[in-house]
Amino acid sequence: MRRITISFLLLSSFFYAQDSNRYTDSLFNINQSVTNGIYATAPEINSPYQGESLTHSAELKFHLFTPVNDTLKNRPMLICIHGGGFVSGNKEHDDMMEFSKIFAQRGYVTATIQYRLGMNLFSSVSAERAVYRGLQDGRAAIRYFKENSETYGIDTNNIYLIGSSAGAFIGLQNIFMNEESERPASSYLISHFPPTLEDGPDLGSLDAINSTLKYGSQPNGVISLWGAIQDTTIIKDSDGDIPLLLIHGTADNIVPFDVGSPFSAASLPPTYGSKPISERLNTLSKNAETYFVTGEGHEFYGVSNGNWNPAPNVYWDTVVTKSTNFLWNIHKPEAKFGYDYIETGDKISFNDSSKGAVKWMWDFDDGTVSYEQNPIHQFPQWRAYLVKLLVWNSIESWDTTSSTVYTFEVGVDDPQDLPINFELKQNFPNPFNPSTKIQYSIPAIITSLPVGVRGGFVTLKIYDILGQEVATLINKNQTAGRYEVEFNAEQLTSGVYIYQLVSGHFVSSKKLLIMK
Fold it and tell me: pTM (2 decimals)?
C-alpha cells in the first residue's frame, strides 16, 4: 500500500485585522504642512448681512496636514468641511481639526477648508444661494488640490469629503447637484423694482470658482455628518455610484433627520435629511452606508457648533471608526486566492486572484512566508494550516484573506476504484427499531492526479419533521471512499425523521421512519 499526503482547502475567505496597517491604524506623527493656504478667491457676502448684492473679494483658505517621514508619493486625501449654518464657523472647528489630524496619522493628506459665509435666516432665496456658494467652493477646493497634487503628494483618484452640518450640505450637493440644469432658480440673477435684499448677481456655473482649473470637481466618497439636500428628486441613476456614509441623530432639531426646515424656521425652505436620502438611494439600488442613532440630536458626538462641549463623548470613537473603515473599504485592494495540486499531491500551488494588488505576502502557518505572487509550497506535517494572504495596492492600502489547509495521510491501493460521485443511499432497514444503517459515498474530486485522491469535510445529521437537529452522526474530514454508519434511535420517539449529508456544495436528504 502506498502512503501519500493529500491536502485540501476549506475556503473560509474571512478578513482579519492586522496590527499597524496604513489607513486603519495611527502610524505617523503629523506636520501642519500648510497654514492658511489659499485655494480660491470669490465674492463673499459682507458681514453683517445687508443683501445679496453687497460683497467683497474673499480669500478661501485651508490648513493642510501630512504624515511625517512618509515615503509614499501619492496618498488619498480627506477634505474636512466645518458646520455653522452658512452664517458662522471656520476651518479651525475642533471636530474638523481633529479629523484632519487623526486621518493624517493614518497616512492620508488632510485639509480643513474655509468656504463663503453669509445668509439671511428669514429668506429662503438667500438660504438657497448660500448653499449653492458652498457647493461651488467645495468643488473649487477639489480642483485646486488636484491641480497641486504633486506638490502635496495626493492621489487624485482618491479624494474624499467629510462635512458637518452645513459642511455636509456641501458634500451631499456635490454628489447629487452635479448638472447645470439642477441649479436652483435663486442662483441666477435676481432683480426687483424696487430693489430687495434678495437682489443679487448670477452666481455662475457649478465650477465658476477656480474656473480655469480643468479637473473633475467631484469626490470619490463623502461622509455626511447630519446633513441634508434641497430635494431628493435630484438623486438620479445618472449620478453614478460615489460611496456615501450618512451619519445622523433621529431627533436632530437643527438639520431634520427626515423632511423639515433647518432650525425649525418656517422662513427657510424644507430640506431632505439622511432618512429620505437613504430611502431614495435604496429605491435606485444605490445604497448608502448609514449610522443613525435613535433619540440623538445635532452634532451628537460631543460638540456644539463644531467645538468640544466640553469634550468628545462616547459616540466620537464610533464615528471615527466607521469613517475609517468606510474610506479604507473604498480604496483597498481585494485579497483572494485559489490553489491547485501538482505532481503527486504533496505540494500545493497557490494562485493569486486578488484585485488591484501589486505586492503580496503569504504566511503558511509553518514558520515560512513568501513574497511571490503565485508561490508553490510543501507543508512539513500532516495537520491543519491557516494560510494567510496579505496584499497591498499602489497607495499601500491593504487587504487580507485566509483559508484553512488540511494535510493528512491516507492509504490507497487503486484510486480508480473510488467513487466519482456523491451518493446518499436509503437507510436499511426502514422502518426500523431501534437501529438502522446509512451508506454514503464521497468521490475522488481531483481526478487529474496520477496517484492520490481527496475527500472533504462531511456532516451527516438527523432532524425531526420540524427541522430540529436531534443527532450528529458525522462531523469531520473524510477521504474519498464508501462509508456506512449505524444510527441508534433508542432515545427517540416513533415518527418520520430526515437525515442529511452535506459536503462542500453537495447536499442530499432522505426520510427514515422509526416504529416502536
Answer: 0.79
